[in-house]
Design brief:
By secondary structure, the protein is an alpha+beta fold. It is built from 15 helices and eight strands. The chain has a domain of about 140 residues. The strands form three sheets. The protein has a four-stranded antiparallel sheet, sandwiched between helices. The structure holds cobalamin and iron/sulfur cluster (SF4) (2 copies).
Length: about 350
């Protein structure tokens, strides 16, 4: 049996794209991670720079190949929510649908199990594993990292989630994109569109200023950081939405992509008072299978409070909610709910 061909047809039947690289340490990634550490840009939930982040053999010593897998997630065009006097928050597209972790996990595990059955030890990771997925995906030739720091894949733009499969199987090394492809050229739309200047160095995201990260940081935020959030209560898609490759991507609207549609969860523009009135039970029913559950309801409420207090002039309902939360026993809610003195200025 030709293992590469059989593997390829199994991966395709699961709705995945893939590219294969030799299982070698990535020196460029090591340097990027160390530089990032020096700058203090490591995300709060990320492991420190150590060999298991850039060397596949530190995880599976007998690995021969790294297979970079992509699960397409092109968003369907949806209405953004009608104009309303009730203040709304902004939820990133990936968090308005099903959590990609289990969707990619079972597909990756199925491929790993199949390879194991052929006699090749294999391991799969998605997101929470130590290896940096974008860098290995680029090294394998699945796509190219754009100035927004995301992997651009022809036909999908940035709309794909990534996972890595380490295996002893001698799969044929074959890139999907030409290694000399320069996707960005003179374009700098994402850098200019980023509202917090987190992309001032092309391809390197200043995590301390990235809205996506700030929405996930726990506890009380310093005022300067809280002000970066604007109306975002989970994640941020701006540097993807402006990218011509992502704008041009067409959703299949079927298969796994369907699960990223906001038919489930709290939607893309939820009313802030609704979030602040949610209790555990209804939150679990509506959002337990979405990425909003990573931080849980308390973090979402903190972000909703930061968003609400910016909606000047404050309505009487907003004032009442902010006063209620200002008296709470959670310091992060109390701080986020500090009501501006006359309601005409931001706190
Ligand atoms: C930590 C993390 C974050 C942090 C930090 C982001 C960052 N840029 O490092 C925060 C919370 C900010 C974040 C945000 C988002 N993330 Co994130 N995140 C991760 C995680 C867990 C680790 C990333 C990491 O190791 N970063 C360290 C840097 C140094 O390494 P790197 O990512 O491999 O890529 C860098 C190098 O390749 C380097 N590079 C490549 N070529 C070159 C060339 C030159 C010249 C230079 C200088 C650098 C360079 O630049 C790349 C970008 O910094 C990965 C999952 C994983 N385990 O890999 C997901 C992951 C990268 N995130 C993902 C997504 C979807 C997002 C968001 C879009 C979510 C959202 N909508 O809010 C945003 C996008 C923000 C952005 N513009 O990157 C996807 C990316 C999919 C894709 N198509 O690229 C991943 C792979 C998760 C997944 N399994 O699908 N994320
Ligand atoms: S996710 Fe938002 S804040 Fe982060 S780099 Fe992209 S545009 Fe900037
Ligand atoms: S918006 Fe332009 S510069 Fe940014 S990633 Fe897309 S093509 Fe590259």
């Amino acid at each position: 049996m030709d293992v590469t061909r059989a593997f390829a047809s199994f991966a395709r039947s699961l709705g995945l794209l893939f590219a294969v690289a030799p299982a070698r340490p990535l020196g460029s990634l090591r340097r990027a991670l160390l530089l990032r550490e020096e700058r203090g840009w490591r995300a709060s939930f990320e492991p420190p720079p150590e060999p298991r982040r850039w060397d596949p053999k530190a995880i599976l010593p007998t690995a021969q190949r790294v297979v970079a897998l992509a699960l397409p997630a092109v968003p369907r065009r949806t209405r953004e929510g009608r104009a309303s006097p009730i203040p709304r928050g902004v939820v990133s597209r990936y968090a308005a649908g099903y959590d990609y972790h289990p969707l990619l996990q079972w597909r990756g595990e199925a491929l790993a199990l199949w390879l194991k059955a052929q006699g090749y030890e294999s391991r799969f990771q998605v997101d929470t594993g130590p290896l940096s997925e974008r860098s290995f995906a680029e090294a394998a030739g699945l796509g190219k990292v754009g100035k927004n720091g995301l992997l651009l894949i022809p036909g999908l733009g940035t709309w794909a989630f990534l996972g890595l499969l380490l295996t002893e199987a001698p799969l044929k090394v074959k890139p999907l994109v030409d290694p000399s492809w320069d996707p960005c050229g003179e374009c700098d739309l994402c850098q200019r569109a980023c509202p917090t200047d987190a992309l001032r160095i092309a391809k390197e995201v200043d995590t301390s200023r990235c809205i996506s990260h700030v929405t996930q940081e726990r506890g009380v935020l310093q005022e300067a950081k809280a002000s970066l959030l604007h109306s975002h209560i989970w994640g941020c898609d701006i540097c993807q939405e402006v990218c011509p490759y992502s704008r041009g991507a067409v959703s299949l609207g079927r298969g796994p992509e369907m699960l990223f549609s906001p038919w489930y969860g709290l939607g893309r523009r939820p009313f802030l008072p609704t979030i602040l009135r949610l209790t555990k039970g209804p939150f679990r029913r509506r959002a337990a299978h979405t990425p909003l559950n990573w931080g849980g309801l308390p973090l979402l409420k903190r972000n909703a409070l930061y968003a609400l207090r910016r909606k000047i002039p404050l309505s009487s309902l907003s004032r009442r909610l902010l006063r209620e939360y200002a008296a709470s026993d959670r310091p992060e809610w109390r701080e986020a709910a500090r009501v501006p003195r006359d309601g005409t200025e931001e706190p």
